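Supplementary Note 3. Input sequence used for the single-chain structure prediction.
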Amino acid sequence: MCNRNYFTIPFYSIPLIILIVTSILHAGTTGKLTGKIKDAQTGELLVGANIIIEGTTLGSATNINGEYVILNIPPDRYNVKFSYIGYESVSVNSVVISVDQTTQLSVELNSQSLQFGEIFVTAKKPLVQKDVTSSIATISREEIEALPVSSFTELLSLQAGVVGSGSNLHIRGGRSNEVAYMIDGMLAVDPLLGGLATSVNNDAIQELSLLSGTFNAEYGNALSGIVNIVTRDGADKISAKLEYRTSEFGVKRYSDLHEARINGSLSGPLFVNNLKFFISAEQDKRGNYLPFGYNNDRSIFTKITSTQIPMMKISISNRGSLGRRQSYNHSYKFIPEQYTRRRTDSWHSSVTMTHTVMNNLFYDLRVSYFNQGYYSGIDKDTSQYLSTSQRTYFPIGTGFEFYSKADPVQLDDSRTITFDIKADAVWQFDNRNEAKFGIAFKKHKLKYYSVYDPKRNYPYINDYTTEPYEVAGYIQDKIELPYLVINLGLRYDFMNANNEYRNNPLDPTSFVKAKPRSQVSPRIGIAHPISDRTKLHFSYGHFFQNPDFQFLFENNQYDINVREPLFGQPNLDAQRTISYEVGVAHQLNDRTAINLTAYYRDITGLIGTRYYFPFVDGRFVGYTLYVNEDYANVKGFELSLDMRPDQYLSGGLSYTYSIAKGSASSETEQYPGTQESTQLYYLDFDRTHMLNASATYTIPKDEGPSLFNLRPFEQMDFSMIFRLNSGAPYTPGGRDVGFVERNSLRQPVTYTLDLMIGKDFTIVEGVRLRIFAELLNLTDHRNIIYVYRDTGEPDFTFEGNQSIEYMQDPSNFGPPRSIRIGATFRFR
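The predicted structure, written as discrete structure tokens, is reproduced below.
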């Protein structure tokens, strides 16, 4: 038996198919600017006034009603100039544009006879976004840089309704693979095994948004939420950044963590002003607070953007990542070299071309190639693996606690290639209606090899290659009335497993072709601005998600000799959610606003397992099938307080109350087993109470306390993140306990406080240095993440007569305090 690690890793430049099509950025990666222009003295609407977004080729003119619309604006802060013959110009600075949102900006112009001269105004982003009809959390590049977080997934974990860490995030009580991750409008998930399949360093992100609960028809194949990332374009002038942080600064406690992260970016025009580039790269090495384990990630991102052709923008981007990691297993404490190691790689290339036909109409075409792989094992041929009967132990405790010689029982090796093509259009066909429509096609090539317990007589093996495909289309209309905004949409999804399967797993003559699956999902969202400070919203939608392909093709060689045979089904249906949401937003004063949202989710057809007993209906052996059987429902509310940043203070606070119950927390929870759950219980990832708070305090130049005519605290910043969560549920157990309800008790509350302190220095004109320190888990609180079921304690159990050393598993606790220091150079 061989290792079968035969897939090539394409971590190099891959030729792209460049289609000659007129097309700019995909719907879902840009925003809109609208407003009216009046005479400041008479109130008369001005027809034909000009609006220019400085530093871009975007602009418009007012119609006969004095109104203007500018579509297709990438998210950022802009200066907008308004002008009209015979009137003084007005320039509005720091106008914020966000993805999928409408920014309202109306001005009044003074006649030149009054001789005011050009007027400059600084815009304020509205605290209550009146056109948003569902829950959206938007995080700008400035906010990303201000907080002590190393990845965008850490930012997501700070949002209301989000539980978990890394790529294992649960949104509003859903499973972790119910989240769709989109980068520049294209999916970046593993279609075979599920979950996030790449990494993007923070420097490459222009804006990050989280759509939770409900979302428009342009987004699909997700049940719980959409993570939408828009990457940066090249700057107008050459700019660069280089940053390094480390825990190795001479204090052993923190140096032993072996954390070192270096990242940088370079941006600017490429020979001419209408051809720009952006490059960023990162290497993040981390040890572990546990006896062994590590994480080593590398990523690179490049983008070239051209606006040389009038009314057209072409972007070519490439994104690659490599990951090497090992987690901790207490039984392997003394032989870490023999425990499972994981490798990941990904390469994503895309071409986007957009043609702006008119100010109110643009369309785009996007083509992408996504290649990603996953390996989990110990890098040796399976013929050399030790069988479970060959394992030996150190003479500690019971003598069966810590391995002295052992190999993990499973090896996984997968590679997926996805070719994706999308076409979208946005048409503002009058002042009230913005229509979006589009189609998409995805073709996958999936390779998977896995073996469980390779040295037993009949090892459990998966070995297949298959090529399913998907098609989707949508149409939606955003109707913006003075006191009502309505989002109406309809989405169609189609999936063909493109495979044959046994209608009866035990009958080799029962092969049939898998039937294609399709579904239509309606979406509706309503926002009602009661006043200029208060808004109500309501949204409702049907959402579908195709199962991860591993559940369709499991054991498709139909090996019934293995113990507890489990089979996939290519005819599995899509999983379904019906979501409702209602909320109110109110601006308390000029700087703060409060949002309250209540939601309910009814989730059906989740993937689970069903056991078929032997000697019934002609079956000569028992087996298990993946089926659309599991159910869950989630209800709760989210309360958030948002603060508009000023030159000193910015921040926010969110509280979530949630109850997530279901029949199973994962697809394989009831395998192997002969009974399916008929009761709903608290899911493993349910957290009843979640509180997140963040704040940044900045001391500007020439301010702060004075000492001997110096201001030592000027240009300093202090950022804080506080998290508090209810403990995870667990099932009590032990001798003579009798029947107990699953997940009926709770682990202790967890909390962390993170702090970052920084100070800026100007080296020379255009060159700045910032030194900083990050203190994670500042209070050094020992958060409990696992307890023994008989005692409810993380470090003691009566079961198994275990030794003290084995009971005191350090992975039952979260990470202790860690400190990193670093420096950032910026050039512009």
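Confidence is low (pLDDT under 50) at residues 1-27. The CA atoms of residues 754 and 776 lie 4 Å apart.
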